[in-house]
Amino acid sequence: MAGWQNKPFAVEVKAGDTKAYCACGLSQNGPFCDGSHSGTDIRPRVVKHEEDKVIYACGCLLSEKMPFCDGAHKKIDS
Ligand code: FES
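That is the input. Now the predicted structure with FE2/S2 (inorganic) cluster docked in place:
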């Protein structure tokens, strides 16, 4: 399995929230950054959310629209 899980994380966000999403895949708190990228050249993807809603953050790390799910997880054999 790539990433943390073979499906997206539903994340409830509020307008004005700034969240850092893991880009290295090392976080123990996926999909969020926990600082595990320290010592690499990889930086988290920081997103300022503009409205209250539920977003779907990629859990498999295969999305081409990171940090958001683009459906790529559907290609993973389960
Ligand atoms: S969870 Fe990765 S593309 Fe959907």
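The CA atoms of residues 6 and 60 lie 5 Å apart.
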